[in-house]
Amino acid sequence: MKSNDEVLLEEFEPKQIQRLDEIIDEYRGRAGGLIPVLEKAQELLGYLPVPIQERIGEGLNIPLCQVYGVVTFYSFFTMQPRGRHTVRVCLGTACYVRGGKKIAENLERMFGIKEGETTQDRRFTYETVRCLGACGLGPVVVVDNDVHGRVKPDKLRSILDQYN
Amino acid sequence: MAKLKIEDLKKIKERVHKENALREGDRRVRVTVHMGTCGIAAGAREVMNALLNEIEEAGVSDVAVTTSGCMGLCSREPEVTVEILGTEPIVYEYVNANKMRQIFKRHILQGEIQSPFVLARGKEQQD
Amino acid sequence: MKVFRSHILICGGTGCHATGSVAVKQALMAELAKQNLSEEIRVVETGCNGFCAMGPVMVVYPDGIMYVEVSPEDIPEVVEEHLLKGRPVERLFYKEPLTEERIPEMGEIPFFAHQKLRVLRNKGLIDPEIIDEYIARDGYAGMAKALTELSPEGIVKEMLDSGLRGRGGAGFPTGLKWKFASQSKSDVKYVLCNADEGDPGAFMDRSVLEADPHAILEGMVIAAKAIGSSKGYIYCRAEYPLAIRRLSIAIEQAKEYGLLGENILDTGFNFDIEIYQGAGAFVCGEETALMTSIEGKRGMPRPRPPFPAVAGLWKQPSILNNVETFANVGQIIHKGSAWFASVGNEKSKGTKVFALTGDVNNVGLVEVPMGTPLGTIVFDIGGGIPNGKKFKAAQLGGPSGGMIPIQHLNAPVDFETVAELGAIMGSGGMIVMNEDMCPVDMARFFMDFCQDESCGKCVPCREGTKRMLEILTNICEGKGREGDIELLEEMAQVIKDSALCGLGQTAPNPVLSTIRYFRDEYEAHIKEKRCPAGVCSALFKSPCQNACPIGMDVPSYLALVRAGRLDDAYKVLLRTNPFPAVCGRVCDHQCQSKCRRATLDESLAIKFVKRFITDNAAKPEVEAVPVTRKEKIAVIGAGPAGLTTARDLAIRGYAVTVYEELPEAGGMMRYGIPSYRLPREILAKEIDDIRALGVEILCNRRVGRDVSFGEINEKYDYIYLAPGAHKSQKLGVEGEDAEGVYGGVEFLRDFNINENAWVKGEKVLGTRVAVIGGGNSAIDAARVAVRLGAEVTIIYRRTREDMPAAEEEIIAAEHEGIKIEYFVAPTKIITENGKVIGIACERMKPGDFDRSGRRKPVRIEGSEFTLSVDSIISAIGQEPDVGFVPEESGISINRWSCFDLAAGRRAETTNAKFYAGGDAVTGPWTVVGAIQAGHDAAVEIDVAIRTLNGEPLWEAPAQEKIDIPFEIDEESEEQPQAAMPELEPAMRKVNFAEVELGFSLETAIREASRCLRCDAEV
């Protein structure tokens, strides 16, 4: 059986693992440190597969079950690798009443993926969100950090074409 | 940066308040420097600088400075309109930096109209 | 100190960032540098200004001029024109949607003018990343006072006296919460700020954090002093990166200044704040769940007691307040509790910030005194509903709240009233919804949200929300069953009573609220499998067909026009409508208001395409249907309702006789609508087709005059009463009976009977005519008067938007030179020798909202004036003339002089032999509404007869199969609705020729091709 380190090195750079350990060190022994570590780890690595969770659990002296419990509880954390770009369709009330649902449907049809999934080429990860607070611009689609407001269903493709 | 004490808060407030007073809206005096092409060519920019310097030195916060275009009397540029709230506007002609400083000190701060420089009284006619 | 002659404040809130404010700022800086103005003009990036829908916005001081929707390309012009030459750039001013007026100054824009800024006092006015600017606006003065002059008890007392209640939703008195925590004995206590704003449609807290982060810090320090805490956390959503950044900068600057940390302001008080990023769980907005989350665990709520004031974060006494609550604290301490309580009403003090979103013109952030009427927020500040749609309800409190419907627009928005109406104040999300909102779908949406966000700890919430969602989904998909509504109500009660935390306890609120106000729509979904709002797509083929009272198959006939198959298209029209040519001209086309094409550019001109079909298709020969039934049926009134019933029953084999008082059949279509809108021969052709089926129409027979009610009752087995509404309502002012005063319908009828006499001048109105009213009859009468050579003024007591008349009719009247005076009401008719010489009027202003959501006109004292006129046409409303029905018939008539229907029936009256429909039941309504009533009556009469006889129900003869082509454009290009060619206004004044000239074949096909084919199943 492969050691945890070997598994991690198949997917991540040694530099990334080193940085992860630094983050863990920073929070070791601090009450309530788990969630900030997970947030930073995900920012660093893109996602949080079980071997990463094991490493964080060991580092913070928290049982894996608790780490896993937290990761699966919060929608911010993901255990799947992510696409190069994240497309988030807002389905908050304001966007929903202005046609957000139609946009979500178009996107699903266009790429053949469902919410939370990533395209085969790892170009896009598609998510829906509950309100980004940009209700004045609804319906809103966010690609990475770019907010696209007043999106009409047939304009979706031209927006996504800007991202490769 | 040193740690603040209570009285420092007041000092900061006074200082910054003056800088930002023009966002509050209630101004005693409104000075308009006419900055059409002709005005700028005749030296309106220096007049403006002189005015801003005077305001800064005097430390007043109730004078609003705006610009407007040519009044149509290009030959008498630079021109400056001073309107003290509640009184009729006064238009000065052939203003230069020196005259501007005098207008500021005497008219704007003390309310004495500087008659020798006056071009006209009252509002510009709207069409 | 550096004095700049001008400051330009660019909004840097999330909304404006998204619309490009960063690029605008860069362009501005570059342009200022280029013009050598950098030393004279300062550019400041502020937090959210609140006017998000108009972003990017920027305000130029000292003028206070606001520019909206600014793009980098606009900047050179702004610098050159405004900043150099002092000429503000008008095209970038805010445009008032109703008056289209450009408003330069921010304070005069209605959106800002009605607000009262306290929490948001610094929004758009200071640079949130510069602490000095906050201090300059009295920032940290409240904290200084609390730390030096007040004891903890003194702070608590001030908070209690202020009456501040928690702005996070529940409205618990803030002072009381602090009091409990201050009384708990412990060395370690925590002050927590809830910035985990998760309600969909709510962004108040985000805006405050972005625009004025120091206000939160100040409030927290004061709270810390009150309860004796030295450590605070701000729990902020990770979805708000800008807010987190601004907060971090604020904390850093405050620490540098000694306003946070050790020995604050040299008073010996210590307090530190840490930002904790939420990781996306709605339940963490609940206080105990939030604390569990900061502890690094799954954010699940804990049972209370113990309350957080006793054992909160890490089991230590803690208080949790939301962002807006803390933002109030500094000012309360600085200016005093009395100042705070001077605004608001008895139990709700101060102001409330709302995120106004949804179907409203001015989406954005607003702050108003507690108790401000809902209508003021939606209409005065919000600017009303876009695209001429009607307000339906406002949702308050997001997934935990409820809806306040149109009849409560006057309701003061405060904690108590909102709760009484079945909503909650919530954190301040106010989502405006228009007529296109389906309450069942909305309830399903919110339940889906709660079900998804339920943490799963307690059974009532975990399972209950799931089951309720299932029921709601079923109803939306047409699988609802009788009893579902009651089941939902029962489950809602159980969940409210037994769920562990606020999320579960409030999750059923949207369901209960929508059932309370829109039960009829739930019933339509369950019993009729119909979604009146046209949202639940499983229940209909296309929204246009769903909106049509008689369910015309719009996509099919449009597709046939596109394919050039006009004859087939006409057959499709006839399947549901005996008067397609009439409807092609005068229908109120509700189909078009639901057309999905409008989301792309404009709705389709369905009515005009329909007219094109009827003008150009070959009309099939109508053959008489043999009478196969023994029952004899009389119809009273040959209007659209009566003739439709007669036709439907004739098709079913009944012998039908129609009695009509006037010389020709058609009712209002003949004697109300003038010929320039509906040429006589077009109507006559469609009536002839009904006669050809075998229907007997007897004109000049008024029941009660030419033939007695008793005779009809004796001769016929079933009688359909459809006399219409042909009597004008009285104005109720002095002089009404003078010569020269006409009722609207009476005038139109007289004109339509004696058209020759009027045109030749044998009958005259005079040169100046006043028409009173705002309905279609008023406009029709006015347009007829213009054609008779008069100078016409319409007097209407409300606004143009409130006019019941069709928009296109109002526009046509204006084109024809008719003057319309809005907000004017008549007070007296002035006469001389018994003849009209003038009309005294007074001006009105908008008052409170009535139950229809329109503002009641209120008279303005001393605004009386007189118009000299030769005639007055009073068209303020019509009622049926039902005097021919004797009381002993047992047919109940209500106070509007309309027939009552038997409970649960669509046409049967309170005497089972008599049925009724059309305007005589509904009051003045539309042609298509009357046709629907006629269809309904025929079905009910036929079913009643067959049920009585024990016969099987009627089966319609097999229809000719018409295959509907499916041709659709892959990419829809934006292309507005085709315009109807019209007769020149100058030409219209001299004759009664039809004004609308009809589409060409090319236009009709192009227009039909715009159809998005919503009926298609892909």
Provide the fold topology:
The complex is a heterotrimer of chains A (164), B (127) and C (1018).
Chain A: H1 4-11, H2 14-27, H3 34-45, H4 50-60, H5 64-73, E1 85-90, H6 93-97, H7 100-111, E2 124-129, E3 141-143, E4 146-148, H8 156-160
Parallel strand pairs in A: 1-2
Antiparallel strand pairs in A: 1-3, 3-4
Helix pairs in contact in A: 1-4, 2-3, 2-4, 4-5
Chain B: H1 6-20, E1 29-34, H2 37-42, H3 44-58, E2 63-68, E3 80-84, E4 90-92, H4 97-108, E5 118-121
Parallel strand pairs in B: 1-2
Antiparallel strand pairs in B: 1-3, 3-4, 4-5
Chain C: E1 6-11, H1 14-18, H2 21-34, E2 41-46, E3 58-61, E4 65-67, H3 75-84, E5 94-95, E6 102-103, H4 110-113, H5 131-136, H6 141-148, H7 152-162, H8 174-183, E7 190-195, H9 204-211, H10 213-227, E8 231-237, H11 241-256, E9 261-264, E10 269-278, H12 287-294, E11 318-322, H13 323-335, H14 337-341, E12 351-358, E13 364-369, H15 374-381, E14 391-396, E15 402-405, H16 415-420, E16 429-434, H17 439-453, H18 459-476, H19 484-498, H20 502-506, H21 509-527, H22 543-547, H23 554-562, H24 566-576, H25 580-586, H26 590-593, H27 606-616, E17 632-636, H28 640-651, E18 655-659, H29 668-671, H30 680-692, E19 696-698, H31 709-715, E20 718-721, E21 727-728, E22 741-743, H32 744-753, H33 755-760, E23 768-772, H34 776-787, E24 791-795, H35 807-815, E25 819-821, E26 824-832, E27 835-849, E28 855-859, E29 865-868, E30 871-874, E31 878-879, E32 914-916, H36 919-922, H37 927-949, H38 985-988, H39 1001-1008
Parallel strand pairs in C: 1-2, 7-8, 7-11, 8-10, 12-16, 17-18, 17-20, 18-19, 20-32, 22-30, 23-24, 23-30, 24-25
Antiparallel strand pairs in C: 1-3, 3-4, 5-6, 9-10, 12-13, 14-15, 14-16, 21-31, 26-27, 27-28, 27-29
Helix pairs in contact in C: 6-10, 6-13, 7-8, 7-10, 9-10, 9-11, 10-13, 17-18, 17-21, 18-19, 19-21, 23-24, 23-27, 23-39, 24-27, 25-27, 27-39, 28-37, 32-34
